[in-house]
Amino acid sequence: MTWLVTGAGGMLARDLLLRLAERGEAAVGVDRAAMDVTDEDAVRAVLDDHRPSVVVNCAAWTAVDAAESAEGEALRVNGEGPRHLAVLAAKHGARLLHLSTDYVFAGDAAAPYRESDRPAPRTAYGRTKLAGEQAVLDLMPGDGYVVRTAWLYGAGGPNFVRTMIRLERERDTVDVVGDQYGQPTWTADLAEKLVALGTGGAPAGIYHGTSAGAASWYDLAREVFWLLGADPDRVRRVGTSAVPRPAPRPAYSVLGHGGWAAAGAEPIRDWRQALAAAFPALRNSS
User: Fold this and answer.
1) 78/59 Cα distance (integer angstroms)
2) Under 8 Å between Cβ of 143 and 137
3) How many domains does the chain have?
4) Does the pLDDT of residue 286 top 90, yes or no?
5) 25 inside domain
6) What is the pTM of this model?
7) Residue 218 annotated to the active site
8) CA-to-CA distance for 11 and 23, rounded, in angstroms?
9) H/E element holding 57?
10) What is the rounded average pLDDT of the residues 132-137?
11) Contact between residue 58 and residue 238 where contact means Cβ atoms under 8 Å apart
């Protein structure tokens, strides 16, 4: 089995390539310079060269606010790129695991979103990511996997947890939004689930790749301070209105994990357990 991982410079792709190497899997990581997913000829050349059994698409336009004024550019990466990958992965008989986001939902739910719930994105970023989902599911009904994730952190890139570790050293207090709820998710945990989807017998379709439980950014920051041995009360709760952004942030984008249960698999563990396990590496890299 040969794996091809796009977006190889990102946090998730790095952890995935590490897990694959530990398992002795043949894997190639490609960044934008090696393969621009918006260029169909470039995608064709790379897939023809490597003939992968599994393609994992971690390449994405992730600048949520910038997408509001550049939706066409974001759509090329988040919508057309996955379409190119789906067409050409299907040609090679490969599975395609495509990473998506909680932003495909409106973010105003009162209970966790199910995989089958109707998307209703409120941002340009969410609309472009939904276009990518639809391309993969339409073109690869038997071998296309959409994995929605959110609030990622890891040792291999900038993220909220590493920022809080740094700010604990630099500031007496830190103001953090307390009225947005989601699921902090360690990239290493998600990488394990991607390996399972690529190698196992789970049916194609949509899976939610987030940790169990739910937290606000404020809750997450307090947990980071506690793990550092610092006073969590140095974290001060503020509302979303105190941090205005061009793209509206979801108030509640907790994702349900029924897809894993239906496939006979366990979802990712609770976010607090994962954060504690990840913390030594995060602390050393921050």
Assistant:
1) 8
2) no
3) 1
4) no
5) yes
6) 0.97
7) no
8) 19
9) strand 54-57
10) 98
11) no
> If you search the block for the tokens 């932003």, which residue do you land on?
103
Is 43 within the bounds of a domain?
yes
**Which pairs count as long-range contacts for 134-138, CB under 8 Å and 24+ apart, including other chains?**
135/79, 135/82, 135/83, 135/86, 136/82, 136/83, 136/85, 136/86, 136/96, 136/98, 137/205, 137/206
CATH of the domain at 201: 3.40.50.720
Q: Locate all alpha helices (DSSP H) within the chain, ordered by sequence.
A: 11-22, 40-50, 71-75, 81-91, 124-139, 160-170, 187-199, 217-228, 258-262, 271-285
> Is 260:205 a contact under the CB 8 Å cutoff?
no
Q: Is residue 26 part of a domain?
A: yes
Q: Which residue has the tokens 């910038």?
A: 66
Q: Residue 44 has which token pair? A: 């064709």
Domain that holds residue 207: 2-157+184-211+254-268
Q: For residue 206, what is the enclosing H or E element?
A: strand 205-208
- Calculate ∠ Cα 45-43-60, nearest 5°: 155
Of 103, 125, 145, 207, catalytic: 125
Q: Give the dihedral sign, CA 215/216/220/222.
A: negative
Distance CA 215, CA 276 (A): 15
Distance (Å, rounded) from C-alpha 29 to C-alpha 96? 15
Q: Please state, in angstroms and rounded to a whole number, the distance separating the CA atoms of residues 186 and 184.
A: 7
Write the pLDDT tens digit of every residue in 72-87: 999 999 999 999 999 9
Q: pLDDT by residue (tens digit) across 43-98?
A: 999 999 999 999 999 999 999 999 999 999 999 999 999 999 999 999 999 999 99
Of 116 and 156, more confident: 116
Please say if the pLDDT value at position 209 is more than 90. Answer: yes
The amino acid occupying position 1 is M
Check pLDDT > 90 for residue 177: yes
